């Protein structure tokens, strides 16, 4: 079985391209050598949306999303209409990343919760899945997803770091669970248990590159090629092969976001 992995969450517009003479193609070639056949380039602010969209327009094995990260400081909050307009591009397969992050933000966070609701409503209107960022805000994130009936479109809990109970509640809301390089960290005991627990047809793998590089690259700039290390560790935890994890997570990705392997 040939290896075909999907990096379900990366930021190609923010990669450290120094090792590749400043060219994105070098990072894409290395990813291909490692069996990474598709990547989802995720948007965190509308100001740089074109930088997110361009790789998807130029490469058939790259898709894009549109959204504003919960921690981004913006002069004008995104509207449903604006998100729908940008999401109409054929290369945009998801709304996000969006969600709640109480770790980096302080004070009255009603603006963050309202921004989150705007994204959910846009996703429901255009019928595209959501990419959810959740940090130190599990209860409010799940509550808002339920209140807004986000299960109608579903999506993925990206870079999941919570426990089995939270994972199950997210699964019950029609969301997949995505594992990043954090699952390879020795300190991530609870997360490793989640990786053993999540049904094979409900999980994804990602890099979140250039952030959160997996062992053995922890602390260094991350890149899509390293998703193989995430998949290999999940395979080890589940006492199976990387080929099986690749098959399941690839099928899950295209089932959720549409399209097919190129």
Describe this structure in words.
- It is a single chain.
- The chain is α/β, with parallel strands linked by helices.
- The protein has one domain: TIM Barrel (Alpha-Beta Barrel), CATH 3.20.20.
- The chain has nine helices and eight strands.
- It has helices at 24-33, 49-58, 80-87, 110-126, 138-147, 164-172, 189-197, 227-237, 242-257, and strands at 5-10, 36-41, 62-66, 92-101, 130-135, 155-157, 175-179, 203-205.
- An eight-stranded parallel beta sheet has the order 1-2-3-4-5-6-7-8.
- Helix 6 links the parallel strand 6 and strand 7 (175-179).
- Helix 3 packs across helix 4 (110-126), helix 4 packs across helix 5 (138-147) and helix 8 (227-237) packs across helix 9 (242-257).
- It starts with a strand and ends in a 5-residue tail after the last helix.
- The model has no long low-confidence stretch (mean pLDDT 97).
- pLDDT under 50 segments (min length 5)? none
Topology as a string of helices (H) and strands (E): EHEHEHEHEHEHEHEHH
Strand content: 15-25%
- The number of helices is 9
Q: How does the overall form come out from the CA principal axes?
A: globular
């Amino acid at each position: 079985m040939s290896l075909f992995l999907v990096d379900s969450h990366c930021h190609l517009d923010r990669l450290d391209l120094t090792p590749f003479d400043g060219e994105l193609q070098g990072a894409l070639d290395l990813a291909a050598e490692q069996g990474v056949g598709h990547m989802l380039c995720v948007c965190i602010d509308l100001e740089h949306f074109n930088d997110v969209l361009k790789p998807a327009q130029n490469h058939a094995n790259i898709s894009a999303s549109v959204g504003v990260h919960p921690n981004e400081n913006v002069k004008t909050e995104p509207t449903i209409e604006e998100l729908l307009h940008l999401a109409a591009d054929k290369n945009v397969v998801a709304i996000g990343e969006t969600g709640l992050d109480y770790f980096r933000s302080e004070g009255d966070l009603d603006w963050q919760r309202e921004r989150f609701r705007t994204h959910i409503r846009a996703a429901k209107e255009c019928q595209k899945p959501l990419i959810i960022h959740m940090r130190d805000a599990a209860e409010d994130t799940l509550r808002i997803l339920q209140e807004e009936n986000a299960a109608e479109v579903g999506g993925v809990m990206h870079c999941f770091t919570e426990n089995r109970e939270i994972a199950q509640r997210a699964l019950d809301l029609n969301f997949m669970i995505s594992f990043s390089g954090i699952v390879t960290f020795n300190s991530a005991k609870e997360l490793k248990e989640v990786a053993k627990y999540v049904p094979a047809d409900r999980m994804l793998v990602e890099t979140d590159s250039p952030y959160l590089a997996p062992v053995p690259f922890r602390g260094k700039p991350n890149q899509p090629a390293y998703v193989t290390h995430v998949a290999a560790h999940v395979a080890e935890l589940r006492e199976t092969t990387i080929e099986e994890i690749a098959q399941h997570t690839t099928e899950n990705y295209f089932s959720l976001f549409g399209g097919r392997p190129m």
